[in-house]
Design a protein that fits this description.
By secondary structure, the chain is of the alpha/beta class. The chain has a single domain, classed as Carbon-nitrogen hydrolase (Nitrilase/N-carbamoyl-D-aminoacid amidohydrolase, 4-Layer Sandwich). Helices cover about 30% and strands about 25% of the residues. Helix 1 runs parallel beside helix 3. The longest helix is centred in the C-terminal third of the chain and has 19 residues. The protein binds N-(4-carboxy-4-oxobutanoyl)-L-cysteinylglycine. InterPro entries: C-N_Hydrolase (IPR003010), C-N_Hydrolase_sf (IPR036526), Nit1/2_C-N_Hydrolase (IPR045254), UPF0012_CS (IPR001110). It holds the Pfam family CN_hydrolase. Belongs to the carbon-nitrogen hydrolase superfamily. NIT1/NIT2 family.
Length: about 280
């Protein structure tokens, strides 16, 4: 199965972001990818709540979703839109949704997943995130099917919650997606080791398309521009890194031999060896 991961530097203009995404998507499809993946918040990355309120749409009106569905259909590909920031659909909660979509080659939405774990973290005196102030977390894990393969959907900070990945693998996942916008500090320290650990623990291919670089946000000149780590990664079920997207926007192609899932799991059957135990 040939896969392509798009690495992007999304800013606070959804139309500019779409204009960056579409040529890369077409390049991925022209290169023979059957499944193409985009990073977290493909449509808009902005720390400015007012800008988000101004630009974000509900799912039914979102222009990025409509355009990318059309692209998937035209190219005849499976498309994992890592996530879109959207106006929420709960009238009692005005927070946005951070939602991942799986689109089939007819352009239909076949699965959606709302990010479960919110990045409410203080990394340093100058770098502080309160994702739950802007986004409403989801409350269910999602196992989808892409090109006949069971695919577990996760997003970014979810990566730090291994129980979610074990559950997806135990439910049958062979691929797990982790579209991200990792911070540069935690990216350097944790990104690769966490992705490789999740691949080894689950015996799954892990596909992690990422945001990279300095995100343009001219509407908030008073703030530090936000940066992301990049290094979109594909990891095989034995923990080997198959592709690394580096630090600039682009497309990474990777061929997956899905039988590697069975080989890794028969060599190390840890998914089957779990035992109930007493104690703390
Ligand atoms: O802010 C948005 O619009 C979209 N959301 C994100 O970019 C999220 C929350 S700030 N980023 C992460 O989860 C990074 C996790 C990370 O860096 C780590 O776990 O170390």
């Amino acid at each position: 199965m040939k896969v392509a991961m798009l690495q992007l530097t999304s800013g606070d203009d959804p139309y500019a972001n779409l204009a960056e995404t579409i040529p890369l998507l077409r390049k991925a499809a022209a290169g023979g990818a059957e499944l193409v993946l985009t990073p977290e918040v493909t449509n808009l990355l902005s720390p400015d709540r007012a800008r988000q309120t101004e630009m974000l749409k509900p799912e039914s009106e979102d222009p990025t979703l409509a355009a990318l569905r059309t692209e998937a259909r035209a190219a005849g590909i499976w498309l994992l839109i890592g996530s879109l920031a959207l106006k929420g659909d709960n009238p009692e909660d005005e927070r946005f949704a951070n939602r991942s979509f799986l689109i089939d080659p007819e352009g239909e939405i076949t699965a959606r997943y709302d990010k479960l774990h919110m990045f409410d973290v203080t990394i340093s005196e100058t770098e502080r995130y309160r994702e739950s102030a802007a986004y409403r977390p989801g409350d269910r894990a999602v196992l989808a099917q892409a090109a006949g393969q069971p695919l577990g959907m996760t997003i970014c900070y979810d990566l730090r919650f291994p129980e979610l990945y074990l559950r997806l693998a135990q439910a049958g996942a062979r691929l797990i997606t982790v579209p991200s916008a990792f911070s540069t500090i935690t990216g350097k320290a944790h990104w690769e080791v966490l992705l490789r650990a999740r691949a080894i623990e689950t015996g799954c291919f892990i596909l992690a398309p990422a945001q990279c670089g300095t995100h343009p946000a001219p509407h908030s000149p008073d703030r530090q521009p936000r940066q992301s780590f990049g290094h979109s990664l594909a990891v095989d079920p034995w923990g080997k890194v198959l592709a690394n997207g580096g630090t600039v926007p682009g497309v990474s192609f990777v061929s997956l031999d899905l039988q590697a899932v069975d080989r890794a799991r028969s060599r190390i059957p840890s998914l089957r060896h779990g035992r109930p135990f007493e104690g703390p």
